[in-house]
Design brief:
single chain, Rossmann fold, 6-stranded mixed beta sheet, 3-stranded antiparallel beta sheet, binds inosinic acid, binds magnesium ion, HGPRT
């Protein structure tokens, strides 16, 4: 059995770069939401490492919840159809919502989620995404907190998967084409 790192063409962001970036974002969120009822909503499963590290860098009270959504299929390209697999545990009316995501690619997932959650009357709704792949954008979406801009390569690690694997890599890297071609 080969090691995961043999499938990585190039590391884009290592553990230290990610840690420093998340620290900055956490500080900013702590300033922006002071005195507000903040609820972070992680999009399963890709946001799990980011969510876990981000909340430790936020030093104001906040709650967390998770949603699971799926675009049909599990190929390396998204289909554009979004389906809710797990909804929130609690009401969000009057709360300040921050959706936590691993990457904004076409924008389809977050566009759908933002519109869906807006219908429940939160006080505000914003997005924190670790990565942003602007070249692939198909719908408009604005993230208040964005970690790194990335080129149009298929990435894995730090939550990002290929066929549910590689999420546990502590860094973000480009997956070798021969792995998925
Ligand atoms: P969007 O709806 O096209 O913005 O896609 C969002 C979702 O697609 C992300 O939450 C990821 O799960 C997945 N995704 C997009 N780009 C990549 C990538 O480069 N590697 C792994 N997953 C990706
Ligand atoms: Mg995802």
């Amino acid at each position: 059995m080969s090691q995961m790192k043999d499938d990585i063409k190039e590391v884009l962001f290592d553990e230290e770069q990610i840690r420093n970036k998340i620290r900055e974002i956490g500080k900013q969120i702590s300033k922006d939401y002071i005195g507000k009822d903040l609820l972070l909503i992680g999009v399963l499963k890709g946001s799990v490492p980011f969510m876990a590290d981000l909340i430790k860098e936020i030093d104001i009270p906040c709650s967390i919840d998770f949603m699971a959504v799926s675009s049909y299929g599990n190929s390396s390209t998204t289909s554009g159809v979004v389906r809710i697999l797990k909804d929130l545990d609690f009401e969000i009316e009057g709360k300040h919502i921050l959706i936590v995501e691993d990457i904004i690619d076409t924008g389809t997932t977050l566009r759908y989620l933002v519109d869906y959650l807006k219908g429940r009357q939160p006080a505000s709704i914003e997005i924190a995404s670790l990565l942003n792949k602007p070249e692939r954008r198909m719908v408009e979406i604005n993230a208040k907190y964005m970690g790194f801009e990335v080129p149009d390569y298929f990435l894995v690690g730090y939550g990002l998967d290929y066929s549910e694997k590689y999420r546990n890599l502590p860094y973000v890297g480009i997956l070798k084409e021969e792995v998925y071609k």
